[in-house]
Design brief:
There is one protein chain. This protein is an alpha/beta fold and 434 residues long. The chain has 2 domains: 194 residues, NAD(P)-binding Rossmann-like Domain (Rossmann fold), CATH 3.40.50.720; 166 residues, NAD(P)-binding Rossmann-like Domain (Rossmann fold, 3-Layer(aba) Sandwich), CATH 3.40.50.720. The chain has 17 helices and 14 strands. The strands form 3 sheets. A 6-stranded parallel sheet has the order 3-2-1-4-5-6, with helices on both faces. Strands 11-10-9-12-13-14 form a 6-stranded parallel sheet. Bound molecules: uridine-5'-diphosphate-glucuronic acid. Uridine-5'-diphosphate-glucuronic acid binds next to helix 9.
Length: 434
Amino acid sequence: MHISIIGSGYVGLVTGACFAELGNHVVCADNDIKKIACLKKGLIPIYEPGLDELIKSNLKKKRLNFTSSIADAVNAGEIIFITVGTPSLENGEADLTGIENVARKIAKNMSGYRLIVEKSTVPVETGAWVKQTVSAYAGKKHKFDVASNPEFLREGQAINDFMHPDRIVLGVESKKAAELLTALYKPLKAPILITDVKSAELIKHASNSFLATKISFINAVSQVCDKVGADVSKVALGMGLDGRIGKDFLNAGLGYGGSCFPKDVDAFIAISEKLGYEFDLLTAVRNINSRQREFFLEKIKNTLWIIKGKTIAVLGVSFKPNTDDIRSSAAVDIIRAIQKEGAKVRVYDPKAMKKAAGALNKTVTFCNDAYSASKGSDCLLVLTDWDEFKELDFLKIKKLLKRPVILDGRNIYDPQEMRKLGFTYESIGRKSKD
Ligand code: UGA
C-alpha cells in the first residue's frame, strides 16, 4: 500500500520504518529540512534499538523515502498518518497547532480520496476538528475519511511493540476506512478493535493514564512500606500475581517521566475539565508522582546531612533505560535539585549524556563509566534502571567512593546484599528492619 507519514519524529519514524518493512511504500515528511537531509542519508536523529538498521535497509530497497514537502507526501499516499507533536500548553491542554496545520496542508494538496489517520496522542474530539478543517479547506473536490489509530509504542522497544502489539485500535467512520486499515495491519496478526473515532481517542488517553495510575499507586504504597519497614517489591509481587491486577507497571521508584505519561495525564485532566468533569483521581496521580522525587531528595539529605560541597555520583539520566530521551526525566530533576543545593555532580549514562549535556548546568562532570563517576564521590545515586548498572563490581565501587553510600531510586539491588557488602544502602519502600 502507499502510505505517507507526516511528522518524522519518534512515532513517525518508527511507524514509517515498520510499515516499509512490512512491504508498503512509505514516504515520511517533516518540515525540518536539515533532519530530512540527514534521514535521506540514513542518519537517524534518535536512539531507538533496531531503528537505524530498519531505516537503512528500507531506504536501500526504495520502500522508504523522506521529503520536506508535505504536498509531495500528500500526493504519494492514499493513507496519511499524522504523527506531529502535541506538546503541553501552560494549562496542561495539548497544543494542537501542528495537527491543524497538517490538516490544512492535506486539504489543499489532496489529489483524490485520502484516509487521514491521527496517530499522535490527541484529546477526544480532535478527529472531528480535523474533519471539519479538511472539509473547510478542501471543498467538495475530493472524498476523504478521518480515522484514529493510536500508537502504544514504548521507547526503547518500539519496533517490537509495533511488530507484536497486544491490540490494534481503529476508530473509523466508514466501511472503506475500516477495510483499508484492516488490510494494512493484517500482516501483524494482532487482535483488531474497530470502534468510533472518539472512543479510539479516549482509549489512548485512558490507557496511558491508567498505567500512570498503577505507578503512582505503587509509589504511594512504597511510602507506607518505608514507614512500617515492609518491602514494596514483595507487596507488588503479591498483588501482581493476581491476574486481575497484573505484575507490570508496579515498580516503585522515582515516578514516571518521559514525553508521554506526564503530558498525557495533564491533557486528560484538562480535556475532562473542559467537558465538565473534575478528574480528581488523575490529579492525585500527578501529585504522587512529583512527591516521589521530593521524597528521594529528602532521603539524600537524611543520609548525607549537608549536600553543599559534597560530590555526588549519578548513574542514569534518561527517563528510563534503553533510550537517550531525557524529557521529563526524574533524574534530570534530581540532578538540578542537588546542584541547587551546592553539590558537585558526576554523571554517567550509557546513551543519554549528549542530550543531558545540552540540558544540564555546565558544571556537571560527564564520566566514561560508573567507576569513574564514583571516584572520589561522597555517595552514589542510581536514577535510571539500566541493565548494566545491575552488574557492577561493587567492591571496586566501594574503594572508589569516599564513603560507601548508595541511594537507589529504582530498587535495582538487593538491600541485604548491599548491606552485607558494607554499603549504607537506601532505596524506595524497602526499609528493612536489619
Ligand atoms: C508509554 C506507554 O507505555 C506506551 O504504551 C505509549 O505508547 C507511550 O507512552 C506513548 O504514549 O507514546 P514510554 O513513555 O516510552 O511509553 O515509557 P514506559 O515504558 O511506559 O515508561 C514510562 C515511565 O514510567 C518511565 O519513566 C518509567 O521509568 C516509569 N515506570 C514504568 C515506573 O516508574 N514504574 C513502572 O513499573 C513502569
